[in-house]
Model the fold of this input.
Amino acid sequence: MAAKPCSNWLPDDIAIAIAVRLEVWDVCSLASCSRFWRALCASDCLWFALCRKRWPALASDEASSSAFQGWRSFYINNHIKMANRASSVIKFVEECSQNESLEVGYYLRAIRELCSMEAGFKDVQLFLFTRQSSALLNLIGLHYSILSLGIPPNEVIEALQSHHIAERQICVNWFKLGRWFYGFRLPDESRSRKITLVELATSKEEPTLAMLDRGAIHEVLRVQITQLT
Done:
């Protein structure tokens, strides 16, 4: 007697736990392995888990309706929407960049747009952590991931390394109001900091990232970011 396929012996919850750890394109490939996997890879429970993994906030909103179904369609449609909105952010940054430099006001506006679209860490990796993207876009993705999404720095560093962009360099220039000294205001100060993306993701560089997050305020007249490599 022929042995049963091993996949039929797997409880659904274990099979889903395996499938949800895969990339979506691998899930689609897995569906062609057998009738068991084809049925499971089309199931709402798997696609809900994939949606919740990629967009926790959006999946939670949709889950408020217990009657909601069609998580595979939701994933596909939301992926397309995220891709379109990410393209708008990328176009905005490219249009505002002059001589490969970006003023901090435009930089923070791009991050606010990522917040408004509720982009997940996977979206950042797909659309911003690429070799084809500029170092400025890589930096925006890094900043958003750590300070807006709360992704642990070690996970961000791992993503930077896996996409081969960890050693890209940027230069942060800022201009501060001169201090008052015996009734006279000293000249405005110009400062500069050259740093790699992987260095910026470490705890040692939290002050630099925090300064970028504050932007131009009170004593800081202007902040400008320039990509070096």
About this structure: Residues 11-61+69-73 form one domain.
